[in-house]
Write a structure and sequence with these properties.
Strand order of the largest sheet: 2-1-3-5-4-8
Radius of gyration: 19 Å
Distance between the termini: 50 Å
Shape: globular
């Protein structure tokens, strides 16, 4: 069974971080589109049809997941009947937020409205404000997935490519311009890649017949993968509650409200903490609250 796990190489002299991955040379990648551009170009070249399973994984794969590239490729190999194999580098987010959009709205205020407007004009009939739960089965950040050719056609061809075509054909549309507005991140970035990143988990949640294989390694080490003690505190408090809701397949409004509160509190903590400490995945610090306010007043600053 052919499994192609690609690692993008986008800097001069860059070498593979994971020897089990294949090099994918990326020339002149769009900073605004980030991984979105790489996925679209890969799909349009038809490279997803060259192997049984294909995926494009960051050079920070092991840093974020604590799992080697070889281990993940072996996991895919052991699940030949799956449509897609995923590994979520942020297992604590399962307990923090009801779904990726609750999380997104706290960390990137306005992302839901901007994402919904983009989907509407791209012809994607989803309601992000009523998006389903993202639990262990469907939660996947950082585009850490390897899928079959049919899955690529369904997700990238059916969801991401229409979005890309709208943006390419209508760059001056107000909606297209809105998703290019800057949002707070460790490096300069617009809303677009954070919208696209969350579409994957929503696609899985909306398509219940998709055969998903979940690498549970990060969930088994959830406390270790929490970046701060405050996040560990939230996980300790919410874990039994959320596990019970997931097992019962139902979340009460009270639990959702509690998750929304924890998500907002965590965002405020992160904004302050990483304005003073470098993030372990990037080595960078977030802009201070004052700097964020200045950026909002003058986005081009």
């Amino acid at each position: 069974m052919g499994i192609a796990a690609y690692e993008p190489l986008y800097q001069t002299g860059q070498t593979l971080a994971e020897s089990e991955f294949r090099p994918l040379a990326v020339a002149q990648n769009s900073e605004a589109w980030r991984e979105f551009r790489i996925l679209i170009d890969f799909y349009r070249r038809g490279h997803h049809r060259l192997d049984n399973f294909s995926g494009i994984l960051s050079p920070k794969f092991r840093l974020k997941t604590g799992v080697s590239g070889r281990d993940f490729v072996n996991f895919v190999s052991s699940n030949p009947d799956a449509d897609v194999c995923i590994i979520n580098p942020y297992p604590g987010a399962r307990y923090l937020s009801y779904n990726v959009w609750m999380h997104g709205e706290a960390f990137h205020p306005g992302i839901v409205a901007r994402g919904q407007a983009l989907l509407n004009l791209a012809g994607i009939d989803w309601d992000l404000r009523d998006a389903p739960r993202n639990g262990e089965r469907t939660l996947c950040y950082s585009n850490f997935w390897i899928g079959s050719a049919a899955f690529w056609e369904s997700y990238v061809g059916g969801v991401l490519d229409p979005i890309a075509r709208f943006l390419e054909q209508n760059p001056d549309d107000p909606v297209a311009r809105d998703v290019m507005d800057p949002t707070t991140h460790y490096t300069s970035a617009p809303f677009l890649p954070f919208i696209v990143e969350r579409l994957f988990s929503t696609f899985l949640a909306l398509h219940g017949r998709t055969k998903i294989a979940v690498h549970t390694g990060p969930y088994e080490r959830v406390m270790e993968l929490c970046d701060t003690e405050f996040e560990r505190d939230i996980v300790r408090e919410m874990r039994p509650v959320v596990d019970a809701c997931d097992n019962a397949e139902g979340f009460s409004p009270e639990v959702k409200n509690l998750q929304a509160l924890h998500t907002r509190l965590f965002q405020k903590y992160v904004a302050e903490y990483y304005a003073r400490h470098p993030h372990p995945h990037t080595g960078r610090m977030l802009p201070s609250v004052a700097e964020q306010f200045t950026r909002q007043l003058a986005p081009g600053f």
